[in-house]
Amino acid sequence: MSLPEVEKTRSLIHSIQSVVESEGQIPTVQEVREKERLLALTGELSESLARIEARLEASSPPEDEAHRLVALGRAAAEVGLQIQNLLSQTGARLEVAELCFQGGDTTKGLQNLRHARETFQKVTQLSVTMVDVAGKESHRLRSDLNELVRSTVSFAQLLSQYENIDFSLTLATDLKRVRVDPAKWQHMLLCLFSNAADAIGRRKGEGGSIQITTKNDGAGLVHLLLQDAGRGIAAQDLPHVFDPGFTTKDSREGIGLSTCRSIVEQVDGLIRVESVQGNGTTVSITIPSVA
Predict the structure, then answer these.
(1) 3-state secondary structure string, 235-284?
(2) In the chain, where are the structural domains located?
(3) Which CATH number is 141-288's, of 3.30.1390.20, 2.40.30.170, 3.30.565.10, 3.20.20.70?
């Protein structure tokens, strides 16, 4: 039984109880006993539903954690394909190098060995980064937001979807620390990067820039701004960007802005989206700093 089914059944129980308890003609002793028995049964059923609901809620991950796992799975699949391609390139370079050495062309042989080594280093970098991302425990830590931005950008640049995207970072050198869940925030940033890349246009031959800025203010707050010069959001869609399940894309995979807002609000932060169709979008996040 799912949570919606539990709610539907509970509503039916309340309807039965209302009918049984409604006023009418003076009942007989037997009718009174039947009503009492029916009310007792509905009471027991309500308690049973409450226990089922508690077990379902305990076994289901929170919405933002579920979306985080979905995003992690997609990233892992992408990394797996990248590693497979890089290993194929490494193998091809090694075969060419072997043929060059057999033919006496030492110069080209060494060149291909160097390319093979560089390609394999990318495999190592991808593997280490993916392990780091997947291994982060989900809890709040005193964190350097600048470092979170840098590490997430470094990871994004390894993925093919950002091949034609430039990241422009303007990060405050004296940025105050914040208390956030690094794993959730890294995946939230990947969501925002993905949205910006879609808006810019990331097909082959296209490209653009995602600008990321961090700064302090005098009120003990830290600001994170992410800007793109993409197609923007239509005026009629802008009020709904944080609605659960809302999207302007054909695909509904990944982390939505509603979950991004949930992650930000968990640390008493605020997220806003400003956009003009045809003139890009700015996402601004404000969160309290910590000593």
Answers:
(1) CCCHHHCCCCCCCCCCCCCCCCHHHHHHHHHCCCCEEEEEECCCCCEEEE
(2) 3-59, 63-135, 141-288
(3) 3.30.565.10
Dihedral sign from CA coordinates of 127, 137, 67, 272: negative
Q: Do 258 and 243 meet the contact criterion of CB atoms below 8 Å apart?
A: yes
Task: Give the number of other Cβ atoms within 10 Å of residue 78's Cβ.
Answer: 16
Phi/psi at 235 (5° precision): -60, -40
- Token pair belonging to 239: 């009020």
Cα three-residue angle 182-231-262, rounded to 5 degrees: 30
Contact 218, 176 (CB under 8 A): no
**pLDDT tens-digit series, residues 67-86:** 556 666 666 666 666 677 77
DSSP 144: -
Q: Which residues contact 229 (CB under 8 A, 6 or more apart)?
A: 200, 208, 209, 279, 280
- Cβ-proximal residues to 269 (8 Å cutoff; 6+ apart), any chain: 285, 286, 287, 288
How many angstroms separate the Cα of 158 from the Cα of each of 141, 208, 237, 274?
26, 17, 32, 28
- Render pLDDT for 9-63 as a digit per residue (tens, 0 to 9): 556 555 555 555 555 555 555 555 665 666 566 666 666 666 666 665 565 555 5
Q: How far is CA 238 from CA 15, 211, 247, 273, in A?
A: 40, 21, 11, 8
**Cβ distance 254 to 194 under 8 Å?**
yes
